[in-house]
Amino acid sequence: MNQPVQIQVNGRQYRLPQQPTVIVCVDGCQFEYLEAAAAAGVAPYLKHLLAEGAVFQGDCVVPSFTNPNNLSIVTGAPPAVHGICGNYFFDPAADGGRGAEVMMNDPAYLRAGTVLAAAADAGASVAVVTAKDKLRKLLGHRMKGICFSSEKADQVTLAENGIEDVLGLVGMPVPDVYSAALSEFVFAAGVRLLETRHIDLMYLSTTDYVQHKWAPGTEGANAFYAMMDKYLRRMDELGAVIGLTADHGMNAKHDPKTGQPNVIYLQDLLDDWLGKGVDAGGARVILPITDPYVVHHGALGSYATIYLPRDIDADAIGQRIAAMPGIDVVLTNAQACARFELPPDRVGDLVVVSDQSVVLGTSASRHDLTGLTVPLRSHGGISEQTVPLLFNRKTEGIPGKARLRNFDILDVALNHV
Ligand SMILES: [Zn+2]
Predict the structure, then answer these.
(1) Model pTM greater than 0.85?
(2) Among 63, 81, 115, 147, which one has the highest count of C-beta atoms within 10 angstroms of its own C-beta?
(3) Distance from the CA of 247 to the center of ligand 1, in angstroms?
């Protein structure tokens, strides 16, 4: 057998795959979803993986949001290295230096290369399929190969996506952006790609629409994992090494009696404490969960960052917030960036993390909660940090009880199975 080609990305070594390797990021996959579906008998392949595969618990990146974690997984590095610490941030350089709140989904904000791009440069055949298009450009940045989203599967071109006629390949219509089918399309496309061409390395990333609505073991959740089960089994039959993880967990964030979300509106509080709003030079609360698709969570998560006026004592404000019920931890910029490995220039003066059952808002008037048709489930905090890492092969050189990071998954799948 030939010696595997080695690549080095962000200070880590990876062997290029000698058999098709599929990394799956199941958005919002709290461990309990897998266990509940396996126990209910609806996901026999996942049950087999949990019993016979290599199974680890790991920690995702905090803020436990989708983009920071997807980018960590594909770069093998924390946000301090790749720069993506949310969907949304306050860019001091925007608007001619006056600063503005902007989306962080443009590849211009990415500060590190991906393992996917490096593998493709080294000659591997690489494919990426995401549910939402917002992630596609970040994940496929400078990558030669196939890269498309289910959301815009009808708009692919050879020049932009490395593939044509995805709808013909998959045999499914373009799903609604708020649907379980958006994720099913990702799996179906992954299977069809493996069936129709040579793929060395594939990255599949779903959406957490189902997990925001359905708790582990409920009908909607089990139906999703039963769907996923069939496609994973098929990929296994096609000879793929499979590594499955999540970008973050998911928890109920509402009052069980009333079904109303448990929200602390930080901007309203700070406007009151400082006697002025952000437009008058007051504090600015940023919720990095904010993105164009807020219907299922109302832009409410368990992580916020706050920019304070220069003359305000950040420690005193931090202590006042930390003393409130429902707050897990308040950290200064330096403390948060050290603990969570974040880029200091994209984080405010304070970082606020709320408890497992509580979310953080800006002003009550700025959150449209009419789209919350079921009681709120969300993420973002330390309480959603535990994620599964599952492999359909035995691993070598990793202690069975090792606590991994979700962004170790490429290392494990390429170097240790
Ligand atoms: Zn997510």
Answers:
(1) yes
(2) 63
(3) 6
